[in-house]
Amino acid sequence: MCRTARGSNIMSAEFYYGVEVFLNGLMAGVMYSLVALGFVLIFKASGIFNYAQGVMALFAALTLVGFQNGQIPFASLINAIFGTNLHSFGWHLPALLAILLAVLVMILFAILVERLVLKHLVNQEPIILFMATIGLAYFMEGFGDLMWGSEIKKLDIGIPQGGNGWVESHTAFLGGDDFYGFYLDSLDIVAAIVAVALVASLVLFSQYTKTGRALRAVADDHQAALSVGISLRTIWVIVWSIAGFVALVAGIMWGAKSGVQFSLSLIALKALPVLMLGGFTSIPGAIVGGLIIGVGEKMFEFLIGAPYLGGATENWFAYVLALLFLVFRPQGLFGEKIIERV
Amino acid sequence: MKLKLATLALSALMAAAPAMADLVYPSLSYRTGPYAAGGIPFADGYADYFTLLNERDGGIGGVKAKVIECETGYSTEKGVECYESTKGEGALVYQPLSTGITYQLIPKVTADGIPMHTMGYGRTSAANGKVFSNVFNYPANYWNGASLAINHLLDLNGGDIKGKKVALLYHNSAYGKEPIRTLQELAKKHGFELSLLAVDHPGQEQKSQWLQIRREKPDYVLMWGWGVMNQVAIQEAVNIHFPMENFIGIWWSGSENDVLPAGEAANGYKALTFHNVGHNFPVFDDIQKYVVDAGKAAGNGDQIGTVLYNRGLYAAMLAAEATRKAQELSGKAQITPADMRDGMEALEITEERMTELGMPNFGPSFKVSCANHGGPGTGAVQQWDATAKEWKLISDFGPSDMDVIQPLIDEDSMAYAKENNITPRDCN
Fold it and tell me: What is the ipTM of this complex?
């Protein structure tokens, strides 16, 4: 405790900076959850661990920026074959229209995945399906490169970025002269709002619509769902479309920070500890798992990693945290416990 | 039957002939994967310069140059595979374009007698030619870079940075850790306070590091980043309102790719460079005429004049000039890798020659020697003009602090020699 020049008793600036790290951990957790959600949706409905989820986020973001900037798809290929010099249609689409078109492309992608890959692998072992998604990931990465080029693209759909001035100025009084107010990135705040809306929509969709109930039925028992006339193929298309939409949202939020580039596919790495912790089948698990990982890794870096271990502890500590949870709850925080009886 | 055998033998000879009749320059490039945005312009610049020499001059010394590209995806394992699969083609010099690949290739190129050029990257102490006979890292290395950054801070502060707080934001890898020792030595010499901030690969998440920077308010932030780490760092610096003119990257953190995603807010960001920027050099007119307009460019021609294209072009020019020197020393146009090594060790770049090549003031004048494979270690500072969307040189090419760097080079290279039972060459 200390006393400021303004005469009020307050906690030390260091304490408030700890709170700031905690809040930013929550925000980072939301960003991780956005990626994890896509994995959960597909695993829940089809038992497939979709290795391509990170590449789907990349491909969706590339498509969005491509449409927005009026980029001609496959321009380099066309130019190489026909000796032309095509690059752009010359338009700049409004963000909402570009998002809508990107969603349509992701739906088309879901249909193609079902028709060309999944349809042929019905009743195969999960490991076979997993390997199919590995192939899909590498194909999509190359296809995205061919379609939109590999240069880094600026993503600007009007989401504000940078420290939120209001939060900063209204909290600066808390910690005395050495405290500058809480730093919260406006982009992270928007991401949190979007994540809440997304989860609420998914919950409402699965609880109150006929298709949503069919999705849940397939998730519970494929055979039983088939026996009552639910089309597994249609459900797979719907689930992959929704996962494609979630990938687009994740691609937008992460791409706004770094530009849209091929390393965007690596954001999937941030989702793995979240899935280990939250379980592969729970939407709330993906959110809560994300928050725990986000806060855990940021607080560890702040309190122990940076001061005593030379920093850069977040990547491995997230997995340590997830492993600890796994030891005590192998099915994850909200995962379904599988009990097999003879 | 005899005719058939003779035809077969002739065919085999003809198939093998191009490799032996050309001057072969493998390009271990990465046009795919997370680092493709940086790999493509460099590979284009490297290939386009040799295409220019072939189209305009008929090659080097009358022999055509042949660039063999091998995709590494910036993966060390693939880089080594590329080396193994191309060295039999008569490879004259390797440019691995990756510090990880460089470390793996050092013993291999030495055993195979092929020179390797790691310009501005790789193992810094390879500048000691007495120990690293086949590795060259002229005209500058990471430790020169660290010193050049501090020299710039000294210039900004009238020669006194005592008590200033300098943070190094670095990629948590062998590459990112390279400048730490030099900066620590420089901190002792100049009295500034150095703090180290590690960023894990790939660097997409840097919130903790930038919150720490916001808390501790360093006067300057230096960055040793690559790929997505650069773009995220610049955006985060913008987000916390860190003064961009006090944020200085190494030359691998200073391309158009790094600043464009942050838009106007990246204005004023600085980076080091060991070669000039822009496309106002006569050589680019020739590139346009003989390479791009002729439809022979490695890319689509839109990278000309960008930082990494220029770097690839500069690397190719240095390789071509070393080839000329090797031809001169050996007295033959079709040189071997051993001749090329000798040519690189005797390379002399003068401003007069750079002007002849259409590249006046594009890079420093320097002379390589048996003992010094690192060149002059000079460099300049470039600054991003977001409105014009171009880098501008804001300083002259100046020297680095060799009083600090040379003992470190000697110490590290001698330790390597001891570990690997290498007897240093007598260069006297």
Answer: 0.87
